[in-house]
Amino acid sequence: MRETATPTYDVVVIGGGVVGCAVLRELSRYDLRLLLLEKEADLAEGVSKGNSGVIHAGFNVPSGSLKAKTNVAGLALIYPLAVELGVPHRKTGNLVVALSDEDRPRLEELKAEGDRSGVPDLEIVDETAIRRLEPLARGRWALYSPHTGIISPYELTVALAECAWQNGAEVRLETPVEAVGSGDGLFRLATPKGTIAARRVVNSAGLFADEVARLAGIEDYRVFPYRGEYLIADKDCGLRLGLPVYPVSSRNDPGLGIHITPTLEGNIILGPSAEPVEDKRDAASTREVMARLKAEAGRLMPELGGVPFIHSYTGIRPKLVDPSGRDRFRDFVIEESGLRPGWINLVGIESPGLTAAPAIAKMVAAMIGGRLDMREKPGFIAGQPPRIRFAHAGDSERAERVSRDADWGEMVCRCEHVTRAEVVSALRNPFGVRTMDAVKRRTRCGMGRCQGGFCTPRIVEILQDEGVPADGITKRGGVSRLFYGRIKG
Q: Which of 450, 465, 456 is nearest to 436 (CA)?
């Protein structure tokens, strides 16, 4: 590969999901030249956007594993980190429910596993306590975890990257790594926008981490995609769920069973399923699984039977478990390559990767610190104050905002009460992302009952006002164009 004039970076992170962005933010504490490469048009476009948004306590994975260690360590880190970054979150607690006495031994196993891992304050509770903790839930026994919570996974991802950017790190979107060379103590990463030189590389490419590793000549891994489908209930459905409710699952279940989770905005999510698929991009929703989600969730919460659902979505887990084999558990891979010293692979980072992300980031920083001179940067900016949405502001604050800027008085999304000022702010993000999905994840436009029926044409108008031509407007970048020409001149 022909070397270009691109400057040499101390560390390049490949992959703009929550783990990659957490690594970038952690490394931005130090006096290093940093770059993150993401192949999609925005951050959190892969695994990180399609999950339940649950902060896991750490009892669902075998004690002693990297999954358990980083989960429990991440649990202690993620709440204060979310406060620093101004990311919406809530500590809710969690119930893992057994419908009969026969399932109680499995709850005892989960509690014992969690106790060995150091998960705090786990308790097995009876039917009366279940109804007190969550009146909508049904069950004979449950494992109660008071430190489980919920968070917006894509808002966390974006906030981590923005914090790193504030501290001097660079982020390049739509920049896939296509080939890797090495020599003279440097890795040379070929991209469509030129070749990038790096002293150290962190491969955090999620579903494609095995393929990125193979570009560097590392043939040790294979990622198997497992599809997880979800249903989202209308937040005005008449039910208010206070905490996530999970069924007790067997040790052989590739997931945690069909669970029921509240969102920070008041929706209820059913899912996910867990089926192996051939294509890592196969994010289809299927009628068969949608019916199963409703049926299985209804066993834990009968009131869901009459609830209207407004949307479905799908996430893909990057598992290391071969669906044709007997092995039902494979641990996270967090290791420096013996073949390519200085190249760190993060492979198979599925659930509880969201919770574990800050702990994984510290592990990676320690690994890099063993090889690079990492001096702490004076004046590190830890985060930002929380951004108060117009929908959540009080009347006096709303009036004050409108008096300063009329854009605060123009409602773009009626379902989620998002103003023009918020959409414009989202479009003026530091990474230059100007897609419909970028607006959606940063403002909630299109996430309400009408699923964008009201706000889409208004966002299109604002995009054009911001300089994006109509035929350049996309849903999520690439070939996902919304318009191909005009009928009238």
A: 456
Say which CATH topology domain 391-472 has.
Answer: Arc Repressor Mutant, subunit A (1.10.10)
Secondary structure letter of residue 207 according to DSSP: G
As annotated, the residues of the chain forming the CATH 3.50.50.60 domain(s) are 1-90+149-222+320-387
C-alpha distances out from residue 327 to 63, 110, 346, 409, Å: 17, 19, 20, 57
From CA 404, how far away is CA 37, in angstroms rounded? 38
pTM of the predicted model, to two decimals? Answer: 0.96
Q: How far is CA 462 from CA 141, 215, 335, 456, in A?
A: 52, 41, 45, 10
431-466 per-position pLDDT tens digit: 999 999 999 999 999 999 999 999 999 999 999 999
The class (CATH top level) of 94-146+224-318 is: alpha beta
The backbone region for 454, taken as left when phi is positive above 0, alpha when psi lies in -120 to 50, beta otherwise, is: alpha
Are residues 98 and 142 in contact, defined by beta-carbon separation less than 8 angstroms?
yes
- Residues of the chain within CATH 1.10.10.1100 domain(s) are 391-472
Q: What is the pLDDT of residues 402-422, one digit of tens each?
A: 999 999 999 999 999 999 999
Residues known to be catalytic? 56
CATH of 1-90+149-222+320-387, one of 1.10.357.10, 3.40.630.30, 3.50.50.60, 1.10.510.10: 3.50.50.60
> Cα–Cα distance between 227 and 316 in angstroms, integer?
5
Angle between helices 420-427 and 436-443 (to 10 degrees): 120
